[in-house]
Design brief:
about 210 residues, alpha+beta, Ribosomal Protein L22, Chain A, 2 domains, five-stranded antiparallel β-sheet, four-stranded antiparallel β-sheet
């Protein structure tokens, strides 16, 4: 069972990362889905998406939950029936969840890819990165920023925020693995702690 890593984000929040190495059939063993989610996974055309979906259910089992404990609101944001906060992510061969007892949380996993440099102007002021001469370092930094903004977008939970105008990520050092972020929307500002981890060509970012 490839539980890849468990991260203690703070005293109230924990993240779990799964490396997806099993087949869909193997991941289906020991997992009971609601009828709606069974139809949902059956309708997925991608084996990778099916395996990602099922691996998340194994992560839920790791922390004592079942598929039936998970609910989605009208915006597609996941919630737990017991009132704790959860966020979910899946990218290629990794999936992850973060659960908090007390506060909204967000999580995102992204594969580090060159194309992020081409689209960076759409989600962050690209002129702020002109001093980074090393291409790999630029890809890493932009992937962290994108993942952080995705995580904050998931916390907000409504499809209104613009990454460029409404979400800001404070500059950071790779060595610290932490930074802060802000959501600025309709005259209000809310601040969040950001934690990031790089692993096997992927980046995982948590926000709370």
């Amino acid at each position: 069972m490839p539980l890849y890593k468990t991260l203690t984000v703070n005293n109230h929040a924990k993240a779990l990362i799964w490396k997806i190495e099993e087949s869909f059939e193997q991941l289906s063993n020991g997992v009971s889905l609601t009828s709606g989610n069974q139809q949902r996974v059956n309708g997925m055309k991608s084996d990778l998406h099916q395996r990602g979906f099922m691996s998340v259910r194994h992560l839920l089992k790791e922390v004592g939950y079942t598929d039936d404990d998970l609910l989605y609101d009208g915006y597609g944001k996941p919630h737990l029936k017991d009132g704790k906060f959860i966020s979910i992510t899946h990218s290629f061969t990794f999936s992850a969840i973060i659960i908090s007892d007390t506060q909204p949380v967000g999580i995102d996993i992204e594969m580090q890819r060159d194309k992020i440099v081409k689209i960076a102007h759409k989600f962050t002021p690209i002129e702020e990165y002109k001093s980074i001469a090393n291409h790999d370092a630029l890809v890493s930094k932009l992937t962290i920023v994108w993942g952080a903004k995705e995580s904050l977008y998931k916390i907000y939970g409504k499809k209104k925020l613009r990454f460029l105008e409404n979400i800001y990520i404070e500059d950071f050092s790779f060595e610290t693995n932490v930074t802060t972020g802000k959501i600025l929307y309709e005259g209000q500002t809310s601040e969040y702690d950001i934690h990031f981890l790089e692993m096997e060509g992927f980046t995982c970012v948590c926000a709370c």
